[in-house]
Amino acid sequence: MAENLTFSTLQAILTETFQHLPDPRTGANTRYTMADAALGAFSVFFTQSPSFLAYQRDMQRRKGDNNAHRLFGVAHIPTDAQIRNLLDPVDPAHLRPPFWAILERLLADGEVAAALTEAGRWMVSLDGTQYFGSPAIHCPQCTVTERAEGTRYAHSALIPVLGRPGASDVLALEPEFIKPQDGAAKQDSEQRAAARWVARNGARLAAHRATVLADDLHCHQPFVELLRAQQLDFILTCKPSSHPTLYEEVALLDRLGAVGQREEHVGTAQGRERWTYRFAEHVPLREPPGARYVNWCELTASPTRRRARYATITPGPRTGR
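Above: the chain sequence. Below: its structure as tokens.
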């Protein structure tokens, strides 16, 4: 049994990372270390209290000690402005290691590893989220969108998580921020962020026979080819509006009686439902020539008529999977 992953263990992993953050300062004003700034920022997010550090500074004046020091190891408490000045120039790439270090510690516990695994493989879900938006406030790292009502500035990120069917909890993996890329002529996007993340972490995922889950935005041949090159399987939502060739092929197979179908009755929070599965093998993801052939599955739930469509790769002789 591995050593328990306690709060102090997590703090040690974070502190080790924060102590190696690059320091943008060139002068002699180094009262606050980069670790102090990063631990201070972490404490605010951990406690979900924007006034936490101000309260801790007041506690230090009144009592000579504070919780920021005892709980998070902050030696000197910076102000909010000082934290921003120190951390804003730091590339988020420097904060990737703790995600994998913590995951490795968790996987050392067999029970935790089993809880994160489905049928002997990882299920890794990719989705984007916007965590800041404004029509006026912006910086060089913003994504810029022109709309009828005016310009919109935003910060977004791709958030990969490790989960399994039926489980309410997920484990966050390192994010990929959507921001202007050096030397790129086009504005960054969630699709490009997903491709960067998979290319960087594919070897880690392949070691755990990972299946990547994503929505229709990522269901296109270049991303599928990238996943297969990284020895990864996938389940991708695939809409008729964005995949006309695939659905024309499914319609043709349906007329020939070559689309399989199964039904089952399932109890859900909405009541008893009839789930109808339709599926077909070896259908083109896009127009030939050069199209990747995938498996297609459709689920229709009645009476609520909820519908979800997925495309999955056909196992090929190259990988034997």
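Residues 314-321 have pLDDT under 50 and may be disordered.
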